[in-house]
Amino acid sequence: MTITITAFERSPDGGKGLARDTRVRWALEEVGQPYDVRLVSFRAMKEPAHLALHPFGQIPTYEEGDLALFETGAIIFHIAQQHAGLLPETPNARARAITWMFAALNTVEPPIVDLGTAKLLERDKPWSDARLPLVADRVRARLDQLSAWLGDADWLDGVFSAGDLLMVSVLLRLRSSGLLDEYPNLAAYVARGELRPAYKRAFAAQLAINAKPPTD
Ligand code: GTB
Predict the structure, then answer these.
(1) Helix, strand, or coil here: 66?
(2) 6 lines ligand 1 (CB under 6 A)
(3) In the β-sheet with 36-40, what is the strand arrangement from edge to edge?
(4) What is the pLDDT of residue 206?
(5) Consecutive 10-residue averages of pLDDT for the chain (216 residues)
(6) Which ranges of the chain does DSSP label H, i.e. alpha helix?
(7) Distances from the Cα of 129 to the Cα of 93, 122, 125, 142, 145, angstroms
(8) Full DSSP string of 149-177
(9) Distances (CA, A) of 39 to 4, 5, 21, 26, 61
(10) Is-contact 192 154, C-beta < 8 A?
(11) Which 3 state secondary structure label does DSSP give 65?
Protein backbone atom coordinates (compact mmCIF):
# COMPACT_ATOMS: atom_id res chain seq x y z
CA MET A 1 0.00 0.00 0.00
CA THR A 2 1.38 3.43 -0.90
CA ILE A 3 2.55 5.59 1.97
CA THR A 4 2.11 9.34 1.58
CA ILE A 5 3.48 11.88 4.01
CA THR A 6 3.09 15.64 4.01
CA ALA A 7 5.89 18.18 4.23
CA PHE A 8 6.29 21.93 3.92
CA GLU A 9 6.05 23.19 0.36
CA ARG A 10 9.02 25.31 1.40
CA SER A 11 10.56 24.70 4.81
CA PRO A 12 11.56 27.83 6.74
CA ASP A 13 14.97 26.24 7.34
CA GLY A 14 15.74 26.14 3.62
CA GLY A 15 16.63 22.44 3.67
CA LYS A 16 18.58 21.95 6.91
CA GLY A 17 16.34 18.97 7.63
CA LEU A 18 14.95 20.45 10.85
CA ALA A 19 11.27 20.27 9.95
CA ARG A 20 9.66 17.17 11.38
CA ASP A 21 9.01 15.37 8.10
CA THR A 22 12.74 14.51 8.06
CA ARG A 23 12.43 12.12 11.01
CA VAL A 24 9.52 10.31 9.35
CA ARG A 25 11.45 10.08 6.07
CA TRP A 26 14.40 8.72 8.08
CA ALA A 27 12.26 6.03 9.73
CA LEU A 28 10.83 4.98 6.36
CA GLU A 29 14.33 4.81 4.89
CA GLU A 30 15.57 2.71 7.83
CA VAL A 31 12.89 0.09 7.18
CA GLY A 32 13.15 0.30 3.40
CA GLN A 33 9.63 1.55 2.71
CA PRO A 34 9.11 3.78 -0.33
CA TYR A 35 6.86 6.78 0.16
CA ASP A 36 5.29 9.68 -1.66
CA VAL A 37 5.33 13.25 -0.39
CA ARG A 38 2.51 15.75 -0.72
CA LEU A 39 3.81 19.27 -0.23
CA VAL A 40 1.55 21.74 1.56
CA SER A 41 1.73 25.49 1.83
CA PHE A 42 1.26 27.28 5.17
CA ARG A 43 -2.19 28.34 3.96
CA ALA A 44 -3.22 24.84 2.85
CA MET A 45 -2.16 23.45 6.26
CA LYS A 46 -4.98 25.44 7.89
CA GLU A 47 -7.65 24.51 5.35
CA PRO A 48 -10.31 21.82 5.90
CA ALA A 49 -8.72 19.14 3.71
CA HIS A 50 -5.51 19.17 5.74
CA LEU A 51 -7.28 19.74 9.08
CA ALA A 52 -9.20 16.51 8.43
CA LEU A 53 -5.82 14.74 8.54
CA HIS A 54 -4.15 16.87 11.20
CA PRO A 55 -6.41 18.61 13.74
CA PHE A 56 -3.66 21.11 14.58
CA GLY A 57 -2.90 22.05 10.99
CA GLN A 58 0.70 20.90 10.98
CA ILE A 59 3.07 18.66 9.07
CA PRO A 60 3.91 15.85 8.84
CA THR A 61 0.96 13.55 8.33
CA TYR A 62 1.04 9.91 7.25
CA GLU A 63 -1.47 8.16 5.03
CA GLU A 64 -1.52 4.49 4.14
CA GLY A 65 -4.72 3.08 2.65
CA ASP A 66 -7.54 4.19 4.94
CA LEU A 67 -5.19 4.95 7.83
CA ALA A 68 -4.29 8.59 8.49
CA LEU A 69 -1.92 9.56 11.32
CA PHE A 70 -0.36 12.70 12.71
CA GLU A 71 2.29 13.27 15.43
CA THR A 72 5.76 12.06 14.54
CA GLY A 73 5.99 9.85 17.64
CA ALA A 74 2.83 7.96 16.67
CA ILE A 75 3.83 7.78 13.02
CA ILE A 76 7.29 6.41 13.77
CA PHE A 77 5.91 3.98 16.34
CA HIS A 78 3.47 2.72 13.69
CA ILE A 79 6.27 2.30 11.13
CA ALA A 80 8.44 0.52 13.71
CA GLN A 81 5.64 -1.87 14.62
CA GLN A 82 4.89 -2.73 11.00
CA HIS A 83 8.47 -3.26 9.79
CA ALA A 84 11.64 -4.73 11.23
CA GLY A 85 14.63 -2.48 11.88
CA LEU A 86 13.57 0.16 14.37
CA LEU A 87 12.61 -1.78 17.49
CA PRO A 88 14.30 -4.81 19.04
CA GLU A 89 12.39 -8.12 19.01
CA THR A 90 12.99 -8.96 22.70
CA PRO A 91 10.05 -7.60 24.73
CA ASN A 92 12.09 -5.82 27.42
CA ALA A 93 14.54 -4.27 24.95
CA ARG A 94 11.58 -3.21 22.80
CA ALA A 95 9.87 -1.58 25.79
CA ARG A 96 13.08 0.28 26.65
CA ALA A 97 13.47 1.54 23.08
CA ILE A 98 9.87 2.82 23.19
CA THR A 99 10.69 4.49 26.50
CA TRP A 100 13.50 6.38 24.74
CA MET A 101 11.08 7.45 22.01
CA PHE A 102 8.90 9.04 24.70
CA ALA A 103 11.92 10.50 26.49
CA ALA A 104 13.08 12.18 23.29
CA LEU A 105 9.66 13.72 22.62
CA ASN A 106 8.39 14.41 26.15
CA THR A 107 11.52 15.20 28.15
CA VAL A 108 14.25 16.41 25.78
CA GLU A 109 12.38 18.06 22.92
CA PRO A 110 10.24 20.55 24.93
CA PRO A 111 13.13 22.65 26.34
CA ILE A 112 14.82 22.58 22.92
CA VAL A 113 11.67 23.86 21.25
CA ASP A 114 11.42 26.53 23.98
CA LEU A 115 14.93 27.67 23.18
CA GLY A 116 14.07 27.95 19.49
CA THR A 117 10.97 29.96 20.36
CA ALA A 118 12.95 32.24 22.69
CA LYS A 119 15.50 32.92 19.97
CA LEU A 120 13.26 33.21 16.96
CA LEU A 121 10.05 34.72 18.26
CA GLU A 122 10.87 36.52 21.52
CA ARG A 123 14.10 38.42 20.83
CA ASP A 124 12.26 41.74 20.50
CA LYS A 125 10.64 41.45 23.94
CA PRO A 126 12.03 43.63 26.73
CA TRP A 127 12.53 40.54 28.95
CA SER A 128 14.27 38.44 26.32
CA ASP A 129 17.87 39.06 27.49
CA ALA A 130 16.96 37.95 31.00
CA ARG A 131 14.97 34.89 29.92
CA LEU A 132 17.22 33.44 27.24
CA PRO A 133 20.00 32.19 29.58
CA LEU A 134 17.38 30.51 31.79
CA VAL A 135 15.91 28.70 28.83
CA ALA A 136 19.39 27.65 27.62
CA ASP A 137 20.19 26.32 31.09
CA ARG A 138 17.06 24.19 31.06
CA VAL A 139 18.33 22.62 27.85
CA ARG A 140 21.77 22.12 29.45
CA ALA A 141 20.18 20.36 32.41
CA ARG A 142 18.71 17.75 30.07
CA LEU A 143 21.91 17.46 28.03
CA ASP A 144 23.95 16.92 31.22
CA GLN A 145 21.71 14.00 32.12
CA LEU A 146 21.54 12.55 28.64
CA SER A 147 25.31 12.83 28.23
CA ALA A 148 25.87 11.03 31.55
CA TRP A 149 23.54 8.22 30.46
CA LEU A 150 25.09 7.80 27.03
CA GLY A 151 28.68 7.84 28.27
CA ASP A 152 30.86 6.35 25.55
CA ALA A 153 28.13 4.09 24.15
CA ASP A 154 27.13 4.37 20.50
CA TRP A 155 23.37 4.29 21.13
CA LEU A 156 21.04 4.80 24.07
CA ASP A 157 20.27 1.15 24.75
CA GLY A 158 22.64 -1.14 22.86
CA VAL A 159 21.53 -1.29 19.25
CA PHE A 160 20.20 1.63 17.20
CA SER A 161 16.43 2.00 17.59
CA ALA A 162 13.54 4.38 16.96
CA GLY A 163 14.51 5.90 20.33
CA ASP A 164 17.85 6.96 18.88
CA LEU A 165 16.23 8.12 15.66
CA LEU A 166 13.98 10.48 17.60
CA MET A 167 16.66 11.57 20.07
CA VAL A 168 19.13 12.43 17.30
CA SER A 169 16.38 14.25 15.38
CA VAL A 170 15.54 16.30 18.46
CA LEU A 171 19.18 17.12 19.26
CA LEU A 172 19.88 18.20 15.68
CA ARG A 173 17.85 21.32 16.30
CA LEU A 174 20.50 22.44 18.78
CA ARG A 175 23.40 22.44 16.38
CA SER A 176 23.20 26.11 15.41
CA SER A 177 23.05 27.11 19.11
CA GLY A 178 26.50 25.67 19.84
CA LEU A 179 25.09 23.92 22.94
CA LEU A 180 25.67 20.48 21.48
CA ASP A 181 29.40 21.18 21.21
CA GLU A 182 29.54 21.52 25.00
CA TYR A 183 28.90 17.75 25.11
CA PRO A 184 31.39 15.92 22.86
CA ASN A 185 29.74 12.52 23.35
CA LEU A 186 26.34 13.93 22.34
CA ALA A 187 27.82 15.73 19.36
CA ALA A 188 29.42 12.42 18.30
CA TYR A 189 26.11 10.61 18.88
CA VAL A 190 24.29 13.03 16.60
CA ALA A 191 27.06 12.73 13.99
CA ARG A 192 26.70 8.92 14.17
CA GLY A 193 23.01 9.25 13.42
CA GLU A 194 23.67 11.57 10.50
CA LEU A 195 26.16 9.08 9.07
CA ARG A 196 23.54 6.37 8.73
CA PRO A 197 22.75 5.79 5.05
CA ALA A 198 19.01 6.01 5.80
CA TYR A 199 19.44 9.44 7.39
CA LYS A 200 21.49 10.62 4.42
CA ARG A 201 18.76 9.53 2.00
CA ALA A 202 16.09 11.25 4.11
CA PHE A 203 18.12 14.44 4.33
CA ALA A 204 18.83 14.48 0.60
CA ALA A 205 15.14 13.95 -0.20
CA GLN A 206 14.00 16.94 1.86
CA LEU A 207 16.88 19.06 0.56
CA ALA A 208 15.88 18.31 -3.03
CA ILE A 209 12.56 20.03 -2.31
CA ASN A 210 13.72 22.87 -0.10
CA ALA A 211 16.83 23.90 -1.98
CA LYS A 212 14.80 24.63 -5.11
CA PRO A 213 14.51 28.35 -5.83
CA PRO A 214 11.00 29.73 -5.32
CA THR A 215 8.85 29.53 -8.44
CA ASP A 216 6.57 32.45 -7.53
N1 GTB B 1 4.29 17.33 17.91
C2 GTB B 1 4.16 17.43 16.48
C3 GTB B 1 4.87 16.25 15.82
O4 GTB B 1 5.86 15.75 16.39
O5 GTB B 1 4.44 15.81 14.73
C6 GTB B 1 4.74 18.77 16.05
C7 GTB B 1 4.53 19.03 14.58
C8 GTB B 1 5.06 20.40 14.20
O9 GTB B 1 5.45 21.22 15.05
N10 GTB B 1 5.06 20.68 12.89
C11 GTB B 1 5.55 21.95 12.43
C12 GTB B 1 4.44 22.70 11.72
O13 GTB B 1 3.68 22.13 10.98
C14 GTB B 1 6.68 21.72 11.43
S15 GTB B 1 8.09 21.06 12.20
N16 GTB B 1 4.37 24.03 11.96
C17 GTB B 1 3.43 24.86 11.30
C18 GTB B 1 2.33 25.30 12.20
O19 GTB B 1 2.24 24.85 13.35
O20 GTB B 1 1.53 26.13 11.73
C21 GTB B 1 8.62 22.47 13.21
C22 GTB B 1 9.72 23.18 12.55
C23 GTB B 1 9.47 24.13 11.61
C24 GTB B 1 10.53 24.81 11.02
C25 GTB B 1 11.82 24.52 11.42
N26 GTB B 1 12.88 25.23 10.85
O27 GTB B 1 12.68 25.95 9.89
O28 GTB B 1 14.01 25.10 11.33
C29 GTB B 1 12.06 23.57 12.38
C30 GTB B 1 10.99 22.89 12.95
Answers:
(1) coil
(2) no
(3) 36-40, 3-8, 61-64, 67-70
(4) 97
(5) 96 94 98 98 97 98 98 98 97 98 98 96 94 97 98 98 98 95 98 98 96 66
(6) 21-30, 48-51, 72-82, 91-102, 109-120, 128-150, 162-172, 184-195, 197-210
(7) 44, 10, 8, 21, 26
(8) HHTT-SSTTSS--HHHHHHHHHHHTTGGG
(9) 10, 9, 11, 17, 11
(10) yes
(11) coil
* Side chain identity, residue 118: A
CA-to-CA distance for 148 and 104, rounded, in angstroms? 15
Report yes or no: 194 and 164 within 8 Å, Cβ to Cβ. no
User: Which residue's CA lies nearest to atom 24 of ligand 1?
Assistant: 19
pTM, 2 dp: 0.97
pLDDT of residue 89: 97
Res 62: pLDDT: 98
Residue 211 Cα to ligand 1 midpoint, Å, equals 18
CA distances from 68 to 39, 78, 93, 215 (A): 16, 11, 28, 30
The reported pLDDT for the residue numbered 212 is: 72
Report whether residue 12 contacts ligand 1, using a CB cutoff of 6 Å.
yes
- CB of 57 closer than 6 angstroms to any ligand 1 atom: yes
CB 85 within 8 A of CB 31: yes
Which residue type, as a one-letter code, is found at position 26?
W
Probe residue for ligand 1, chosen from 58, 101, 102, 113 as the CB with the greatest number of ligand atoms within 8 Å: 58
C-alpha to C-alpha distance for 115 and 69, rounded to whole angstroms: 27
Tell me the one-letter amino acid at 36. D
